Amino acid sequence: MTLPLYRLLVDFGLLVLIWIVQLVVYPGFGYYQRESLVKWHRKYTLQITYVVFPLMVTQLLLSGIQLWNMISWYTGSCFLIVIWLWLSTFLQFVPLHNKISEDDFDKKTILQLVQKNWLRTFLWTVLFFMSLYNIETSS
After folding, report:
1. Where are the alpha helices (DSSP H) in the chain?
2. So what's the pLDDT on residue 137?
3. Number of domains forming the structure of the chain
4. Hey, how many other C-beta atoms are within 10 angstroms of the C-beta on 14?
5. pLDDT digits (tens, 9 = 90+) for 84-124
6. CA distances, 77 to each of 17, 33, 116, 127 (Å)
7. 138 — pLDDT class (breaks 50, 70, 90)
8. Each residue of 101-111: b (16+ CB within 10 Å) or e?
9. Distance, CA of 135 to CA of 34 (rounded, Å)
C-alpha cells in the first residue's frame, strides 16, 4: 500500500468520526441531565481518545512525511490544515471538554462545542477530498 493510500484511509477515518461527533455526539450532550452528562462525558472523553488520538497522530505524521518528500501546494496546504486542527483541538476543544468533565459548564459550553466544531468538520472534510483528489491525479 502506498503512502497516499494510507493517508486517504486515515483521512476517511477522521472524516467519518468528525461527522458522527458533529451530528450525533455533541448535540446529544444537550439531552442529558447535568449529573448524568458529567458522568458520561468523563467516560466518553477517555474512550474517544483511544480512537481519535492515534488517527490524529498518524495523520500528522503522514502529512509531515508527504511534505518532507515533496513540497507542493497539496502537501503544504494539507500540513497547515492538520497543524491548525491540532491547535484548535488542544487550545479550544480540550478546555471546553474539561469544563464539562469538571462540572464547570453551562448550556453555552455545549453550544460552543457544536458551533465551533463546524470549522473542524469542514476542514477534515476538505482534507479527505484533497487526499482523494491526490490519489486520482497521481494514478
Report:
1. 3-20, 26-28, 34-69, 73-88, 94-101, 107-138
2. 85
3. 1
4. 24
5. 999 999 999 999 999 999 999 999 999 999 999 999 999 99
6. 22, 42, 21, 9
7. confident
8. beeebeeeebe
9. 46
Report the sign of the C-alpha dihedral through residues 41, 100, 117, 89, in that order.
negative
Domain range enclosing 121: 3-138
Alpha-carbon distance 58 to 120, whole Å? Answer: 17
Percent of the chain with pLDDT over 90: 95
Contact, 97 vs 41, CB < 8 A? yes
Look up the pTM and report it.
0.93
Q: Which amino acid is at 134?
A: N
